[in-house]
């Protein structure tokens, strides 16, 4: 098969994916969401726990987010008031004594941290075998309240993640951003990798020898840290999630040490979000090449593509 025809996408990967910013889900709130090509309902219980269930009631199939209500730790279906707990089990049918054993919907594994609500997706239903990494800067009083940024793009999420391992595009898409040669290290049984590159950078606080540290956990989660400015720092954390195979949402948090925000951090953060926007036109209009023609400068891409394979279940 030649490279030209192979545009099939790799499907929906396994891993942790953000489905909302924490601040966008108040206690008692119910949201209709769609991820992993599935209709879901997201709600926050009275005790404050975010929960995600399959959207359609096991009774007559009402969408739980269209008029459903949080009652204590459960969600109540808008149609006949069956109540489901966070695991998806029906725990009450107000007009019946007996609850049929099959009265349940699929419940998803949810984790809240780093100002985001994450869901575990696994095509074969396997439970989580790794954790969402904690970003200490996001709850450090010396760091600024994070700025958030959200972007929905018609592109396969792997193509968005691939950007990080594509040093050449920085020059052509983002102008003069010189990323320099990178070193790659792996951890967590190969699920995690870190790319570091060092370079002189002009910053609002002067010109420094800085290290750009780019971390990736699975296909959905990544962080970028700027190291090397004395007593100051900057962090971007992002979670990218598949809505459909070729529709993706990316959520970003930007934070900097307060001394840096005071000087020029806002401009710095603005510059970074503009950088992401420069990629959008490419992403929106590209296709996924399963077997791209590569050149000798694409060594990181080759390594990245090999690495991504562990996050897909082999199709039946
Ligand atoms: S459809 Fe949900 S209770 Fe009847
Ligand atoms: Fe880019």
Record keyword descriptors for this entry:
316 residues, alpha+beta, Rieske Iron-sulfur Protein, Naphthalene 1,2-dioxygenase Alpha Subunit, Chain A, domain 1, seven-stranded antiparallel β-sheet, 16% helix, globular, binds FE2/S2 (inorganic) cluster, binds fe (ii) ion
Outline of this structure?
This protein is α+β, with helices and mostly antiparallel strands and 316 residues long. It is built from four helices and 17 strands. Helices cover 16% and strands 35% of the residues.
The unique ligands bound to this protein are: FE2/S2 (inorganic) cluster, fe (ii) ion
CATH top level label of the largest domain: Alpha Beta
CATH superfamily of the largest domain: Naphthalene 1,2-dioxygenase Alpha Subunit, Chain A, domain 1
Form type? globular
| Rounded Rg | 22 Å
Unreliable sequence segments = 1-5
């Amino acid at each position: 098969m030649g490279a030209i025809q192979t545009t099939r996408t790799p499907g929906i990967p396994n891993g942790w994916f953000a489905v909302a910013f924490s601040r966008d889900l108040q206690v008692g709130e119910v949201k209709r969401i769609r991820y992993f090509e599935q209709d879901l309902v997201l709600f926050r219980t009275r005790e404050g726990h975010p929960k995600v269930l399959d959207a359609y009631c096991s009774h007559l199939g009402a969408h739980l987010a269209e008029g459903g209500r949080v009652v204590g730790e459960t969600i109540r279906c808008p149609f006949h008031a069956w109540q489901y707990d966070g695991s998806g089990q029906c725990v009450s049918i107000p007009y019946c004594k007996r609850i049929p054993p099959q009265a349940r919907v699929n419940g998803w594994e949810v984790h809240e941290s780093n100002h985001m609500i994450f869901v575990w997706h696994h095509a074969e239903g396997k439970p989580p075998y790794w954790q969402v990494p904690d970003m200490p800067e996001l709850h450090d009083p010396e760091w600024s309240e994070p700025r958030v940024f959200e972007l929905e793009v018609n592109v396969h999420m792997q193509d968005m993640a691939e950007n990080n391992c594509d040093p050449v595009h920085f020059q052509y898409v983002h102008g003069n951003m010189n990323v320099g040669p990178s070193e790659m290290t792996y951890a967590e049984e190969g699920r995690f990798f870190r790319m570091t590159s060092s370079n002189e950078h002009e910053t609002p606080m002067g010109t420094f020898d800085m290290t750009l540290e780019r971390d990736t956990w699975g296909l959905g989660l990544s962080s970028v840290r700027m190291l090397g400015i004395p007593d100051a720092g900057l962090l971007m954390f992002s979670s990218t999630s598949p809505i459909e195979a070729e529709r993706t949402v990316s959520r970003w948090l930007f934070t900097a040490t307060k001394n840096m925000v005071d000087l020029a951090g806002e401009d710095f953060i603005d510059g970074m979000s503009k950088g992401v926007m420069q990629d959008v036109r490419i992403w929106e209009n590209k296709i996924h090449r399963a077997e791209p023609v590569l050149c000798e400068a694409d060594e990181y891409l080759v390594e990245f593509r090999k690495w991504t394979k562990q996050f897909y279940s082999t199709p039946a």
